[in-house]
Design brief:
The structure holds two protein chains of two kinds.
Chain A (H helix, E strand, L loop, with lengths): L3 E10 L2 E11 L4 E5 L6 H8 L7 E6 L2 E2 L7 E4 L13 H6 L3 H4 L7 H13 L15 H13 L5 E5 L7 H16 L3 E6 L2 H7 L2 E6 L1 E6 L7 H8 L6 H8 L1
Helix pairs in contact in A: 4-5
Chain B lengths: L2 H9 L5 H26 L2 H20 L4 H19 L7 H21 L4 H10 L7 H30 L1 H6 L4 H23 L4 H15 L3 H26 L3 H19 L5 H9 L28
Helix pairs in contact in B: 2-7, 2-9, 2-10, 2-11, 3-4, 3-5, 3-9, 3-10, 4-5, 4-9, 6-9, 7-9, 9-10, 10-11, 10-12, 11-12
Classes of the chains: A alpha/beta, B mainly alpha.
């Protein structure tokens, strides 16, 4: 069964077309980079997968079933600025907040919940910092907190929104390794980015998006300059294309 | 006046209004302190202000009709909170502008209504600045009951409120009813404000909501501790404020707020980790909270040390 199966998806926002005719599948074990310029609809596509935005046409199947917020086995890692980092909360409590929906009303975290959080923190190696207030963490550590929060649900599918943005190269490399090994541990991982170098370096498959899917394949198969000029709306002489040829 | 004299006055049957005022002031500042933690952490101080003003038309109607002021205020405040929540769904006008519109609109409505009541000037001042006299016994039970309901709801929904404060997008993805949680929180803020109006008054009630919680935030990085400290600071400020107000014949609302403000300023200067002076002293003596000179070793994220069921 496909982890994710999107067919003929159209999404409008505020009456304007944002996504058109999206066909995309994702299997467990894959690490897929979703590339596109600002406004290409990357985040909107993730939100459509999570059933957080109304779709105009098409369907999104998660493990064979229509996606429902909180019911599908999806771990979501939103952009870092969505999180209130000055909130007085520790790393482990932040990770535990990812299980709020699953615990249900009037329930407090039990043994299962703490075990899941402990495992998630182990996986991103934040166990030593688990009691530290989230406000005192570096950018890379914060990104790992968000990944741990998603992993606390033991998801089979991970959606990451711009995990590399604003991080330095060593931290990007570190996170790239984490995502690669999560895919190797049989997760289906889909991440948006506009960081070409990190994406080409990390992902085994790239999807170029700009309202529509322009291309979908292994980085080595996406050498055609025209695909990139169409996706990013840049000219033939753009430094971006030099980068594509170099990789 | 000495503390003993104050205690004697509290027990004096001729001054029965005094212990009642103290009880209401303490109860409302405890409730405001707890609810205020969410208000401070979510940056919704302006909503608190709006609700405080929005209860005014309800109180004015209750005054004209000789009904319960607490009830009238609650109805108007909740109605305004709902209107703000609904109108804020339209993204074209930002939430703070919507709040501004309803805040002033409701207050204006209150002024027009109360001007229709004969002899309104004295009562107006009472609404605006609070008063310790003339609290009916009934209000004591209303405030106590409402306070327990508010604290009960906070206890029941704390986990959800925290999740929404932390990350709305993630909360939606988890399937939490974010809109309804917002509404419940708005209503709780409204009720906390309404039960505090008697002693503090509409203009100053915001201080009871914000100041103790903000001071508590300066003193701790742990939410649980903050939500215990804030009501303690509020309750102490109410008691000390009422004592000073009674001793020196100053307006009770203003005095309570000034005491709370003093606590906040003290915390700002002397908080153990984040205080202005504390930081300076620590720097002077060469102690840093963490060793920042040595970068932490980079972990090896590619290889889980202990493969766990969560990721298998």
């Amino acid at each position: 069964m496909r982890a994710l199966d999107i067919e003929g998806l159209d999404v409008d926002l505020g009456g304007r077309p944002v996504l058109r005719d999206i066909d995309l599948t994702l299997d467990r074990g894959q690490l897929v980079g979703l590339l596109g310029p600002n406004g290409a609809g990357k985040t909107t596509l993730l939100r459509a997968i999570l059933a957080l935005t109304r779709t105009r046409a098409g369907r999104v199947l998660v493990e064979g079933k229509p996606s429902r917020p909180g019911r599908s086995g999806i771990g979501y890692v939103p952009q870092r600025h969505e999180f209130t980092w000055d909130f007085p909360i520790s790393v482990e409590q932040a990770a535990m907040s990812g299980r709020t929906g699953r615990m249900g009303l009037l329930r407090r975290p039990g043994v299962t919940d703490w075990r899941a959080v402990g495992d998630a923190l182990d996986r991103v190696q934040l166990t030593e910092l688990r009691r530290r207030p989230v406000g005192e963490l570096s950018g890379g550590q914060r990104q790992r907190v968000l990944v741990a929060r998603a992993l606390a649900l033991a998801p089979r599918i991970l959606l990451l929104d711009e995990p590399f943005t604003g991080l330095d190269m060593p931290t990007q490399e570190l996170l790239g390794q984490l995502f690669t090994s999560l895919a190797a541990e049989d997760h289906a991982v889909l991440m948006t980015t506009h960081d070409l170098v990190a994406a080409v370096d990390t992902c085994t498959r790239l999807v170029l998006l700009n309202g529509r899917i322009i291309a979908d394949g292994h980085p080595a198969d996406l050498q055609d300059a025209e695909l990139w000029t169409r996706t990013f709306g840049v000219s033939e002489t753009s430094p971006l294309l030099k980068l594509v040829r170099a990789t | 006046m000495s503390i003993t004299d104050f205690l004697a006055d509290l027990l004096n049957p001729d001054l029965a209004f005094l212990p009642k005022a103290l009880a209401i002031a303490i109860m409302s500042s405890i409730v405001c302190g707890v609810v205020g933690c969410y208000v401070v952490l979510r940056g919704m101080a302006f909503i608190g202000d709006a609700v405080a003003h929005a209860v005014f038309p309800g109180i004015a109607v209750a005054f004209v009709l000789q009904g319960s002021l607490v009830l009238g205020g609650a109805v108007a405040g909740v109605a305004t909170a709902l209107l703000i929540a609904i109108f804020a769904q339209n993204r074209r006008v930002k939430e703070d502008s919507i709040i501004g519109v309803f805040l002033v609109g409701a207050f204006a409505l209150g002024i027009v209504i109360i001007s229709q009541a004969p002899g309104y000037a004295g009562s107006l001042q009472q609404f605006l600045f609070g008063s310790i006299t003339g609290i009916p016994d009934r209000d004591l039970y209303v405030v106590g009951g409402a306070g327990l309901v508010i604290l009960g709801l906070v206890l029941a929904l704390h986990k959800e409120f925290v999740a929404v404060c932390l990350d709305r997008e993630m909360s939606r993805a988890m399937g939490l009813p974010v809109f309804w949680l917002d509404i419940v929180l708005y209503v709780l803020v409204t009720l906390a404000v309404v039960i505090s109006l008697q002693t503090i008054g509409t203009i100053l009630v915001l201080a009871l909501l914000i100041t103790p919680a903000a001071a508590a935030r300066l003193l701790t990085d742990r939410l649980g501790v903050m939500m215990l400290l804030a009501p303690m600071i509020g309750g102490t400020s109410a008691t000390v404020g009422l004592y000073l107000s009674w001793s020196y014949d100053t307006p009770v609302g203003g005095t309570i707020v000034l005491v709370a403000t003093t606590v906040f300023l003290t915390a700002w200067l002397l908080a153990p980790r984040h205080g202005l002076l504390t930081k300076r002293w620590r720097r002077a003596s060469g102690q840093e909270p963490h060793d920042l000179t040595r970068p932490p070793p980079l972990p090896d994220l590619a290889h889980p040390q202990d493969p766990s069921p969560a990721v298998r």
